[in-house]
Amino acid sequence: MQTFIRVVEVWTPDETGQQLELNGGMYGDLDDFAEYSMREKFEIGEGLPGRAWKQAKPVVQKAFKPTIFNRTEAAHKVGLTSGIAIPIFAAEQLKAVVVFLCGDNEKLAGAIEVWCNDGLSGLALVDGYYGDLERFEWLSKQIRFPRGRGLPGMAWEANQATILGNLNASNSFLRSRAADDAGITTGIAIPINSNEVTEDDDIGSVVTFLSSKSTPIAKRFEVWAPDEAGEKLQFKAGIVQDCPDLEDYDPNYSIEMGDGVIGQSWQTGLPVTSSDLTNNAIPERHSEYKEEFKSLLAIPVYFQNNLKSIVAFYN
Question: For 165-215, where are the E strands, in sequence order?
Fold first, then answer.
């Protein structure tokens, strides 16, 4: 099964704080592109990661060109044509930039969207990548989400990652009929900090990942959050692409700090990737995942300077 996203990269500030360097990535079988990327560094404003750093908000690149994407030739050789970069800020500090790269395929069904408060009627679509879902993209441009309404609005109100399943039949998903027509079944919304957020302000933006069965963005999504004592991560929600019913919250389902990829993301405050789940990437109690999935991405979600949750993408 082909996935909507073909490459995931994590770029973090180097020792000088003046450039971004590759800290981890999931490249599948694109070894040459991975090797090329390892030699790259980006100053603020340079390339896709550098522009997300400078603008302090998610940046979508729908078509790679040498003037705006430094690795255009190498990307085109392996069929990569577009991407999105998401900066991870804790207050004013840039922790990392997560880059998702996609390929040009007419059969891609899914979307990555960026929503921002327009100051008038709620969250408006400012950019997105939709594969070949032109009608769904058009509809998305016409809609606004008040606080608490729809998937982006729910994440905005909660300042927390939010998962929805059965989007084609969900009253909470305002585009359910269009989702049904497009084959989209599962969505996750992640609030993204801005480096200008103060205690009285809202989040900077909301990124939504909308996934279909044919080309899923992830085969499984999970949301984890620190318990009240700050001693463990508790499982808040999970969903498998082939079974779009949310798993019930279990207070005893937990991860220790530093345990596996998700625990490492909590401990370091950074996005963490693994393309080998046979090692210690998965906590022992979740060992069945080692046979089900090949890779894992964990992204920390901040509000102001507080790490609110960890979002996990399994493929």
Answer: 184-192, 205-212
Interior/surface letters 260-269, b for 16+ CB within 10 angstroms, e for the rest: bbbbbbbebe
Cross-strand pairs, 145: 123
User: Which CATH number is 1-104's, of 3.40.50.10800, 1.10.599.10, 3.30.450.40, 3.75.10.10?
Assistant: 3.30.450.40
What per-residue confidence (pLDDT) applies to 66? 80
> Would you state the pLDDT for residue 204?
80
Asked whether this chain's domains 1-104 and 106-217 adopt the same fold, the reply is: yes
| Predicted pLDDT of residue 245 | 76
User: For each successive 10 residues of the chain (315 residues), what is the average pLDDT?
Assistant: 84 94 94 91 93 94 83 88 93 94 75 88 90 88 91 91 85 83 90 71 84 85 92 90 76 86 95 86 68 90 91 93
What is the torsion angle, in degrees rounded to the nearest 10, for the CA atoms of residue 253, residue 259, residue 265 and residue 269?
100
Q: What is the distance between the alpha carbons of residues 151 and 170, in angstroms, rounded to a whole number?
A: 10
Q: For the chain, what are the domain ranges?
A: 1-104, 106-217, 219-315
**Distance (Å, rounded) from C-alpha 128 to C-alpha 208?**
9
**Backbone phi and psi for residue 15, each to the nearest 5 degrees, phi listed first:** -60, -30
Q: Would you say 281 and 292 are in contact if contact means Cβ atoms under 8 Å apart?
A: no
Homologous superfamily of domain range 219-315: GAF domain (3.30.450.40)
Quick one: CATH architecture of 106-217?
Answer: 2-Layer Sandwich (3.30)
For residue 99, the model assigns a pLDDT of: 96
Look at residues 208, 111, 205, 218 and name the one whose alpha carbon lies nearest to residue 151. 208
